[in-house]
From TrEMBL:
Keywords: Nucleotidyltransferase, RNA-binding, rRNA processing, Transferase, tRNA processing, tRNA-binding
EC number: 2.7.7.56
Record carries keyword Flavoprotein: no
Catalytic activity entry: tRNA(n+1) + phosphate = tRNA(n) + a ribonucleoside 5'-diphosphate
Family: Belongs to the RNase PH family.
InterPro entries with a match to the protein in the record: ExoRNase_PH_dom1 (IPR001247), ExoRNase_PH_dom2 (IPR015847), ExoRNase_PH_dom2_sf (IPR036345), PNPase/RNase_PH_dom_sf (IPR027408), Ribosomal_Su5_D2-typ_SF (IPR020568), RNase_PH (IPR050080), RNase_PH_bac-type (IPR002381), RNase_PH_CS (IPR018336)
NCBIfam families per the UniProt record, alphabetical: RNasePH (TIGR01966)
Pfam families membership: RNase_PH, RNase_PH_C
Protein name: Ribonuclease PH
Record's keyword annotation contains ATP-binding: no
Binding site for phosphate: R85, G123, T124, R125
């Protein structure tokens, strides 16, 4: 039995609350159990300087954890500089979203994604990616409604989930207690059509086998398919 009492192939309670940020072109408050992330998408009619004149757009992301999103208060990174972990996660979010956007169809514009972790209980990066897609899609819907673009450049959905080995058994959607004691943990980013965007997998003790990895991948595909279906309901 998992510490959470869930079945090994069971997601935490997942919810998406759209339109929670009044001023953002797109927003979503995503909850994976006790992990809560506010995702906003901002429309920008310019591109990064290095991309100007290239005839295509960009999607980029910033990620951060609020001081009391965890058990002990952490200092704001704005005062101390971003950690390597934060930089790695926000680059992952950006890559994941760009994989499902036709950047040429977007034109010389960009979408700025902000993922702010309000409460953390494991899987903040995967929740951020899943909620960020909804916020981004809402921003594109706004742009179409305003006549800024004729049609959305989104070509697929993308979601992400964590998996790990708990007591040697593959488990889906780890919370913090599970993640901190797992023999191996992995994050999978998968499109709505089943394409793999990114896989991050690490053994915390003994190396895991190919069979164990395939079992984690199968769980992740099923979990992301579920999340993608929920995203489609809001699209």
């Amino acid at each position: 039995m998992r510490p959470s009492g869930r079945a090994f192939n069971e997601l935490r309670a997942v919810s998406f609350d759209v339109g929670v940020a009044k001023h953002a072109e797109g927003s979503c408050l995503v909850k994976f159990g006790d992990t809560h992330v506010l995702c906003t998408a901002s429309w920008d009619e310019t591109t990064p300087p290095w991309l100007r004149g290239a005839g295509r757009g960009w999607v980029t992301a910033e990620y951060g954890m609020l001081p009391r999103s965890t058990g002990d208060r952490m200092r704001r990174e704005a005062k101390n500089g971003q950690s390597g972990r934060t930089q790695e996660i926000q680059r992952l979010i950006g890559r994941s979203l760009r994989a499902v956007v036709d950047l040429k169809a977007l034109g010389e514009r960009q979408i700025l994604i902000d993922c702010d972790v309000i409460q953390a209980d494991g899987g903040t990066r995967t929740a951020s990616i899943t909620g960020a897609w909804i916020a981004m899609n809402e921003a594109f819907k706004w742009a179409v409604s305003q006549g800024v673009i004729k049609s959305s450049p989104v070509i697929d959905r993308v979601a992400a989930i964590s998996c790990g080995l708990i007591g040697g058994a593959p488990a889906l959607d780890l919370d913090y207690d599970e993640d901190s004691t797992a023999q191996a943990d992995a994050n999978f980013v998968i499109t709505g059509t089943g394409g793999l965007v990114e896989v991050q997998a690490t053994a915390e003790g003994d190396p895991f086998t190919d069979e164990q990895f395939q079992a984690l991948l199968a769980l992740a595909k099923a979990g992301c398919a579920d999340l993608s279906a929920r995203q489609a309901e809001l699209a």
